Amino acid sequence: MSLDTTESGSNHASGPSGRPARSENPSRRAERRAIVGLLSPFAILFLLFYIVPICYAFVRSFFVTTRKGAFGPAEDAWGGLSNYGQALKDPALIASVGRVLLFGFIQVPAMLVIALTFALLLDSRSARFKRFFRLTYFVPYAVPVVIGAIVWGFLFTPGLGPVADLIPIDFLGNTWVLWSIAIIVTWTYAGYNMLIMYSNLQAIDQDIYEAARIDGANAWQTALRIKIPLIRDSVILTGVFSIIGTLQLFAEPQVLRSISTSISSTYTPNLLAFTAASGNAYNYAAAVSFLLAMATAVLSFVFLRLTQRWENS
Amino acid sequence: MKLSFWSWVPGIDDAVDLWNAQHPKVQVELNTVPGGNQGTYQNLSNALKAGNEPDLAQIEYDTLPSFRLQQGLRDISHCLKTDTGDQFFDFAWKQVTFGNTGVYAIPQDTGPMAMFYRKDLFEKYGVEVPKTWAQFAAVAEAVHKQDPTVQITHFPQRDTGWFAGLASQNGARWAQIDGDKWLVNIDDAPTEEVAKYWQNLIDRGLVANMQGFSQQWNKALADGKLLTWVSAVWGNATLASNVPTTSGKWALAPMPTWKDGEHTAANWGGSSTAVLRGSDHPYEAAQFALWLNTDPDSLKLLNQNGGLYPATRAGLDLPFLKQPSQFYGGQHIFDVFAQAADNVDPDFIWSPTMTQTYASLADGFGAALGGDSTLSEALVGAQEDTITAMRLQALEVEPK
């Protein structure tokens, strides 16, 4: 179906003839078909594997299980908000949310500052080997998250990795393991965020810099007063991405769990939902997932509102 | 006729091929899957929900109740002779019959426990092989005093099945069925005694804080920093493959007991072959499951390829389990395990929510190893979390 519409969309110049329509109509209709055709592969998959499961989970989250007997068959019954009530007073969930919030407050700003610094350095007039460094910064993002976490796990293990042997910190212990995860996440995503900011810097009209130079601005002033304000949209965008990513933290702690004794099965909200689902508490896991999605939306919204002030100033 | 079968035993395809060659009319199609807790149980639960489960699947004993609760297991008692159970070890048969309410799987292998120890290093430090847990603690102290980098063993935070084995050795009853009701008692007195014992070793720094089966653990074993591993029969292959450089230096002794002179042992792990709800051919599936786990040729293949230790008494007399093991200095290690298998408490049963119990225990153990809590508190937490999990499954449950 999508192929058909794309084809008819591509030959819009010779639109269907012999119809009493205004001259621009066929081409506009073809354009609309082209839009539908080009969007539909994404839209269908998005609908099937994203929207439909989310709606299903949303419905499930209102059901509870009932049964009779030590091994009786399960039946679903309407439970209203009881799963949500249970989740909100689950101390493990509250602790996990607190943990990722603490993580986010430190890791997200640190990572964005690193990304912004890299982007500005690459964009500066005195930068050398730009292609090489751009690629180097970005390479960690191309490493699958699980592989990256395994490699870092080795580096953090005393007796095996140089990091743990050089720095006398128990990277996998109770106190530091959260920040070891922060190091992995920063390593993975700083280059990715740098690329978004750097592309935005590249799109800035060079005349602006020339004007600044004529006005006597040095490189520092250009970066702070001109470049950063001009790319604030991409800084905000990477901020929102990072907040969402933080709340969904899963792969890194899940991988490190097999080598650290300090990461619980409810370490992050996503791990908690995963643990609940693997214990067949699907309805409860659905409720937790929904709370998490709502919290992510609220936090992203608050962040956008806060940054809007910066934009308006 | 085609039967589908999910299993993760390495090399089980040879046994399946043998069955297929001998039974041209009942062909088994093997699907090699990841280990149960590495995703297969989840897939199996989902398959049961979707109604496209295989005819047969490998399920570990501690997860059988969970699948029975999901109505996933078929009662195959009418497909078997009434004396089928007599050939299996009592403790294994009890796991698949749920108090004589049917036969829900065929026992495949068991994991009787014993103590692997470094014979060379025991001699070097001049310590005796401990017979009781009290002696084990004394050895732990003695070797650590001589070399502070050496510890008797590690406390495995996530191997909660290991801890369950130790608790059962002391007579724990984590779960019992009382009519329609479940009685749950994870922090009972025997378990509490085990927890206090290990907490004491942790507090004194006598056991290592590292994950079992990790690279760090392998290295500590290879470097002679850990002297023992109280583990199941399948652990013999783990050591041989993870620390090949220590070949010939290990030996095996019965696991320490709580009282001097008693022979109590425990079981860690082991699987069954279950016929699943939707099978169109439960009779043939049951015959295959029985053959797979009792036929001498099949048992030999399962042992040689996958290291499985038979769940049948006759299986332990097979010639390949009478061979000396070079890795263990020529010792007949399977004799020690055979003795252990006779001394496993048959009345320790699993709750249907072991996934959550294990997760909660592991979380609590992690906190205890981190110094924030104690193993006893971990038991209390696991007791509460298990009751919550069972109530989420709408089971009638009572703390006992």
From TrEMBL, chain A:
Main location group: membrane
Domain ABC transmembrane type-1: 97-303
Single Gene Ontology BP annotation: transmembrane transport
Organism listed in the record: Nostocoides jenkinsii Ben 74
Membrane-crossing segments per the record: 35-59, 100-123, 135-156, 176-196, 234-251, 281-304
GO CC terms: plasma membrane
Membrane topology term: Multi-pass membrane protein
Biased composition, class Polar residues, residue ranges: 1-14
UniProt entry keywords in alphabetical sequence: Cell membrane, Membrane, Transmembrane, Transmembrane helix, Transport
InterPro entries: ABC_transporter_permease, MetI-like, MetI-like_sf
Gene3D superfamilies named among the record's database cross-references: MetI-like
Keyword Endoplasmic reticulum (UniProt): no
Key word Transmembrane helix present: yes
Designated name of the protein: Binding-protein-dependent transport permease
Family listed: Belongs to the binding-protein-dependent transport system permease family.
Region (Disordered): 1-27
Superkingdom per UniProt: Bacteria
Annotated localization: Cell membrane
TrEMBL record, chain B:
Keyword Plastid: no
Designated name of the protein: Extracellular solute-binding protein family 1
Source superkingdom: Bacteria
Keywords carried by this UniProt record: Cell membrane, Lipoprotein, Membrane, Palmitate, Signal
Organism: Nostocoides jenkinsii Ben 74
InterPro entries cross-referenced by the UniProt entry: Bact_solute-bd_prot1 (IPR050490), SBP (IPR006059)
